[in-house]
Amino acid sequence: MSEILQLPLNVTLNDESRFDNFYPHNNEQIILALQTFLKTSNETVFYLWGDRGVGKSHLLQAAAALAKDEHVNALYIDGACHDIHSADLIVAVESCDWLCVDNIDAMITTPEWQEAVFHVFNSLKDRQAKILVSAEVSPRQLTIGLEDLRSRLAWGEVYQVHSLSDHDKVRVLQFRANLRGLKLSDEVASYLLNRMPRNMSDLFQVLVTLDEASMAAQRAITIPFVKSVFEMVAN
Hints:
With 235 residues, the protein is of the alpha/beta class. It is built from ten helices and six strands; from the N terminus they run βαβαβαβααβαβαααα. The protein folds into two domains: 4-160, P-loop containing nucleotide triphosphate hydrolases (Rossmann fold, 3-Layer(aba) Sandwich); 166-234, Helicase, Ruva Protein, domain 3, CATH 1.10.8. 49% of the residues lie in helices and 12% in strands. α7 crosses α8.
């Protein structure tokens, strides 16, 4: 039976993070390479890096979702959650075939964690398991003292996930809105981009809020409606 394990328990996977709803502009090669890595490649490590909000978490969680579909045991970890213990990780990986570590640069900030992750990588490589990680910087830019770990992280395929232009962010919002059955005009999408946090994960959450409010009020999403929704949220 396939299972998606998670550490810590208060981290939840986003059910909407799938490969088929990732807006691929300028990142098409990465999507193809990642899917090939997971399904047919003999490589052990796949390393994604790029600025916050470019879609790295989406891709790692999409990989975890694919694992479930393919009946593969996967472990998803957000390295930015500091209530994970290195001993728990070492035990948890014993039962996983794909390890997805988001924000690994936030995890390996101490010698203890660097040694633990190094041990985990060696263990998984011996079992021919898959290791998919994300960080804000490339392996050579990581601030770590354990050079053997840096070498392990750069073992396989390394890709930069490129940032989106404002024009592309508007298109992404409309793409995700369309998947929800919503019509988002250029004017409304631009308004959201200029008035809300510009991080795409935050903008997607705004879209969820507007979707729910629109359904409840049975109203189209217009700029006046957006203003009224967030005035209520603020109060």
